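#struct-queue
[09:14] JT: dropping the first one here, sequence first, then the structure tokens:
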Amino acid sequence: MALALDERIAQHKKSKYFRICANFETKYKMSSEIFLKKFDSGQLDDRDDFFDWYAAKKSLDSWSNKLEILSGISL
């Protein structure tokens, strides 16, 4: 029961951060993967959107990983 709740929460969070990243991808016309490479290499400026996008992408990756782990647990 607790695992099912954790899985639903992880799915909700993953969807939330996916939508945020998708909005930034549309706005800046680049994928989140390309954005991360450019951000990490210092090719982008210091606008707030880029820090928000970075945080959203890292959160998306983290929740995706948690969801994958939770989905693989069987009792």
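[09:21] JT: and here's the second one, same format:
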Amino acid sequence: MPERTEGAGVGGVRVGLREAHAHLPWLGRSLAMVDVGPAGSLGEALGLVRRERERMDRAGEGGWVIAVGARMESWAERRWPTRAELDAAMGSRAGFVMSFDYHALVANGAALSAAGVSRSTPDPAGGVIGRDADGEPTGVMLEDACRVVRAAAPEPDEAAREGHVRSALTHLAGLGYTGVHDLLSPAWLGPMLGAMERSGELGSVGFEEVGLYVPESEAAGALAGRGGWEGERVRLMGVKVFLDGTLNSRTAWVLEPFHGALPGLECGKAMMSPGELEGVMERAGSVGLGVAVHAIGDGAVRGALDAWERVGAHRGGGSPGAEGAFMAGGVPRLRVEHCEVVDGADVGRFAGLGVVCGVQPCHLLADIEALTRYLPHRLDRVLPLRELIDAGCVPGELLWFGSDAPIVGADPRDSIRAAVGRGRGDGSAVIAPEQAITAAEAWGAFGVVGAAARGT
């Protein structure tokens, strides 16, 4: 278990870490999937996929071949596999290779057929289907188009799901976490965790707090059923929405165009209109739920803050400042998640508007190639942690650290290294070293689980 050598305790008492942004079901599931993250080339990645398919064939296992962790920008070829290459690796099985950020994937022909994707299939709202010069799908699916393929794959049964969640919690506990927030909770997760709390299993693993954020479309069902599963350790905190895409997919909403932008997506993609986002904020607040907004690019960050400011104006007053940032139980009224690129004009608005800035510094370690290739003109605005703290985002209060596991590994030491050293330490680029913070500040951003963190 990682040792907290700085800022380790409150009043001399050692406390656990809060993983403020994770995805428990997918984390547990990914631990059992083939990981192509270590591959340095497309050929190596395809070799890993082929070996997994051969293993499944020998074992007589059914199902799809699903690989995770692809970092196309780190491969020598810097491209996705073609449908033909993936078909050869997966044989007769359907399957796909998922980008490490889960916002892009490449599917083979059998998977596209199972999902009903053909040349006549229109792009889904909020998604892009990659096509060749003849209009045929290449297998590359971006943003909401990923869900079309994933929805066609067999889902784990209840027993498997429970095993995945148990594996995720055990994995996080081994890294020193005693609290976790799940930032896109399926409807079955709350009841499952509630049962684990009642049986004592959650406490035996070492977890004191599990907070859930459900898709906004499922908020009504979660509210209606929360009485059956909430407890001292498990609670519904809010709703989650996506305002943009990702840097590696070049779908993050940025203020200045990407270098090498995708046609028609020069500044990425806004996933919601201002009015839609304001509506989410109004509805959630009216029933006592917080809102978590996925916003990676500086355009999305500004869009989220602008919407919050307008909602406050609609109510006849400004949005709550730092003193009113939390509801009962320490639930943030608004948290903007990722904030990987933040314009200088927006840094001070977080504390001024009472908005939690939820960041995952470990993403910097995975995104160095994408940042230096696509946003070389904005590197000084990447994770401006020093400015955020100096502008009033106190670590653990308005500045929260997480990992986004399984998108990036959950080891807190990775975020400490990125926040303090601003790079991998392997000779690759150091990004905005002037934004470095101290180790004590970085550990502080992992929070204090329990009453001290909630101010109760």
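[09:30] RK: nice, looked through the second one.
[09:31] RK: The radius of gyration is 21 Å.
[09:31] JT: good to know. Residues 1-15, 450-456 have pLDDT under 50 and may be disordered.
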